[in-house]
């Protein structure tokens, strides 16, 4: 941070202690000595980093200058921060640590040497980057300044052995790293406090050489903030925005320090996409910030980055012995220090790294041993056109369990139509659109013929029933207890006496008024009705549903995840009665009421329990 203030913003000192170490490209030290990024999975004393997990953390360390200030230096807080990152690397899945500059107060050899020695606590255990702030070098110079004590200690040679390091600019003050996290690569740029035109050209070259990698830009001075936490570009930030950020859609997050208080803003780049720009700095707080870090917890499963700010040094203290100022500075929970960013990563990165959808898979590729029936809806039909009554959908196993279409209650053509909509992982890229409902009852169903083998199958050794379903958004109307899949035939006729009603079918998959999936089965051997209940399932997106029975009990899975409410009571087989299997509805007392409302895709029935890895789609 500059002790003379901010030329284009409020006239006050500001340091941002958000550490983001971003490497660069260009130097001979780079690519030739780099180790494959996957090697970073080993983290020394802190356990293993998982590069495939959809959740990982980026640790950001801002201005630490007051901890390395001449004869008042105290590296203890920063050492404790580094110990924390090493110890928690596996648990928090910490991919990287980045320092945002102003490592020291005066940039003297003694201060730099002490800071460099402190970094040995983390070196070789968690990869990191460091960039020069205005207190680390002569602040009137840019990255073409030549040699300095900072460059000697924190130049490219320091990072050469790191598996993430890919290179540095010829001057050595800018660097970049490539992280392997959440099953993909991420680019981190670490730019000098005053990057020259040559430095900007180098950074553009790095981006051009990695055109499909999402990028995080780290530097010392990019935005300043008002007291309400609203950030705006500094003069240097405007230069970076116009010269590098706005025209490169890859850069979705930019982090800086230098000023205080912390703040954040969202800018729109030339591709009309969001760029989150943050300032983080705690040197104005008790004990110079006490090595406080900010963690960016990326969660690609939820589409969120969760941000937290805390001091591991204070956290490690005995709570009963913490001084009052230590106790109140352990964690910062204001709107600019603890928050979440909602990001649809696939959509945000689509402009430079579009996800290529998988191609359709032939039926033969999913015909596992024991497959009794497999139906898909891509063989014929014009998208949007009605599926006529009497249309036959072949059982692709050749076992003769073909389905025939019929409408319920004189429903119109719109009750069942062909659709190209499908789950991204579904083998066939097609589905059927059902428009069933109540008041009046309407819909359409597909049923096996009277002599289909599936009608009498008892499944005493187990089974797996799979289907793909999408509920419309909005989910209009009353669709309580609509059926998805079932077998016709009353359980009372199968000799069952303990169920909810003897008129209920022997097996059905339905949707409750709360949008809970209900799978109820009357087993072949037991007089019982073990029932699985899911959570409230989503609308507007596809889901994969699987019901797996191993001959003893039944477990339901939604999107490859076992639900909570699976019955523990024994369940062997299905008490089928020689009556048709149904897609699109459930009978009560052998009468169909409403039909299904939504889309149904590929459906498969196997006469054994399948592991999740053998389901019709993967859940990686």
What does this structure look like?
The longest helix is centred in the first third of the chain and has 13 residues. 12% of the residues lie in helices and 29% in strands. By secondary structure, the protein is of the alpha+beta class. The chain is built from ten helices and 34 strands. β28 and β29 form a beta hairpin. Strands 17, 20, 21, 23, 28, 29, 30 and 34 form an eight-stranded antiparallel beta sheet that branches.
The amount of beta strand, in percent, is 25-35%
Q: What does the overall shape look like?
A: elongated
Number of discrete helical segments: 10
Number of strands: 34
Which structural class matches the secondary elements?
A: alpha+beta
Assembly type of the chains comes to single chain
Write out key terms for the chains shown:
single chain; 620 residues; alpha+beta; 8-stranded antiparallel β-sheet; 10 helices; 34 strands; 12% helix; elongated; disordered N terminus
